[in-house]
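User: I'm preparing a small set of examples for a lab meeting where we compare how different chains pack in three dimensions. I only have the primary sequence for this one, and I'd like the structure in token form so I can line it up with the others. Please keep the answer compact; I'll paste it straight into my notes.
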Amino acid sequence: MLSNRWKNKLHQKFAKFLLFWNAGKFLISGKFLDKKAHLPAAKFNVPADFFGLGVAPGPHPAYDDYICDALASLKLSIVRIDVSNDNKDAQMRLMDKLTQAGIKLIVHFVQHPDEAKIIAKKSQVQRQWAEFIRYILNRYQASIHMVEIGSTVNRPRWSGYTLQSFMSAWQIAHPIVKEFRLTLAGPNITDFEPPYTELFLRKLQKMQLLPDVYSNNLFAERATEPERYDHKVMGYRLADKLKFNLIKKANTLKQLSLSFGVNRLASLSSFWTLPRIQRYTIFTELKQADYLVRYMVLCVASGALEKAFWGPLICHREGLIDDHEEEYPQREKISYYEKVTGQLSKLTRRPSFHAMRFIISHLSEAEYLGSQSELTGLEIHRFKKQQHVFDIAWCINGLGYSTYQVYSSDALSRAQFFDIRGEPIANLPDFINEQPIMLQWNDIKDAYKPIAPKQALSVKICRYGYVDYFHLQNQQWQAVIASNLRSQAIQLFEFLISELDKQVSQTHILRKGRNVVWQIPHPFNPNIQLVLKRPARQHWYKRWLDKAKPNKSKAAWNASCELMRKDIAVAKPIAFIEHLSETGFNYNLYVCEAVKHQATAREMFAAFNLGQDQFLGLSKTRCLQQLSHFVNKMHHRGVMFRDLSAGNLLLDIQDDELMMTLIDTNRARFYLQPLTVRQRLIDLVRVCNKINWADREVFLAYYFASKGNRLQTWMRLPFYLYDLKVVLKRKLGRKAWRQLIRRFTAQVD
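Assistant: Understood. Below is the structure token output for the 749-residue chain.
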């Protein structure tokens, strides 16, 4: 006879086998290969109760009043509340308050994980579960819009459910909910995992206990931003081919649930946590607001969902209101949003709160008219509500499209402009960027279809930066200029064009080789020095290979803006200029602000190589530690610099800290995930080339220790090879041959 322990193990193994077996059948079926499933839907009306969020009680009734006031401010008529025996008295207190305010409830019944694990075997737990559901439904039946059973059932470590225990809990709950003639949703699968959808719905179909609404917490967070093709479906390489964006994932789940006779789909909890956003940028709260608007618009555009809810209203990690409690929860709030913590007086409304109000106000009961953009990275979705027609437009992270090349001047002259708070925008930005904006017209005839030509200017924009960005052009040149005012940008544009025609003074030249780099005072601010960079020469084969790439100046601008977005210190980009007709590599100019610094990393390494134990007043150990932290931060945020030489790292001392700034950015590449070890080594071998091996070992030990790793034997090989490459290049490269020819010529003369 097998022990219970082994029976459980065999059951788990069999359940996994079934899951993968059905996953294989699902993949072979080809249901996920619909070539148009990633595209927005045609016209339809957005339900009044499409948007919602989760609420939970606080420690005393004053929190309930605060929550009701917040919901009134949002003009929200429906909420989701998690109800469990753990905290039912406080939860019922809040439910009483909500029903008095006329707010409809989606009641999400949650079991404690310990109970969820044993409900299939313990009759007492089954009886308590049934009594609890019946009690709540009997008390709040008139105010309940929907009942949801299941709590992240595909995450046993969060919910406690096995397949068997969930089926037992569902089998008890289903007839009770139907007895009260209420709509039943479930099984509350989290993330896009169709095999689990197929597994659970197939089991429920066999039991003749299917839900009325299939609920799936349709997260897009794992794709970093709402519009991205999800790399976690079948990897980064296939992401662009399979095109599993949020819209396709919603459509796929809808088709899958329809195959079992469930024709309603709802996402009742989804959010972006601040720690997840912090992996890529420091502008967390602003980015959360952007993502909320973009996510909700795309949920509407899918046409597959009947509801799209945010997660918790009040929570530090993912809430619209911050409770300032930073401790990681014992149970994920996606599984159980139990209660509000933090002091009532310290609760603060985030930008995402106002963004949610904007979405509810404008999109509820609106008519969706479809997508208006065919350009990669540009989203424009059109709606009609009452007498108004409006577009909500944005770009994917960091990208900007010239507004005046996307829309006609006539359409723009007839429009009103609003930000995601619903506040009027006096001056339309020159670039549609990652922060959504709304363009509104009084009549459909005024809202011309966006032009969006293929040649529309697209560049990287750091909208969280220190200035605005202006797109300027004349008959010959176009430029993107960072400035506080348009008038200043125009003056700088004219000045830089004139600078292109001048012969660069030898006294101003910083470097002359493949590029000419020189420095001049800012024409309108004598306290600032400008560094100008213009290509000087390029080998014929490089011109051919780089023909389809952006010119060097545009590449430097894009990389610098992206580094700023990721909070990596870089020389501030001021402008780039390119010729409209001449496409040659040297018909462009990049301008950045000169960086105040005391030394370069090359000078620091030279000092250490000479045996010095300090540099700029800091110990060698501290310098190497802070350098490793800087490089590790860059790599963790998906930046491969590709030209991380010691000369491109400028150093300064501020508050007894070593501050580092990057220059010469045009070769940088950016990824959606932290770099692999092999990608990291491409940068590390370059920055370490000027360090002696003893100090190199110390630096690399600090670098890999922060990742919980160490420098392994195989990792040393790239360093030896790069060192050899540098030596051979010095002895046998083009510069060496030119020097040899010069010496020979001098001797002959």
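A couple of notes for your slides: The chain has a mean pLDDT of 88. The chain has five domains: 48-363, 367-460, 468-593, 599-711, 717-749.

User: Perfect, thanks.
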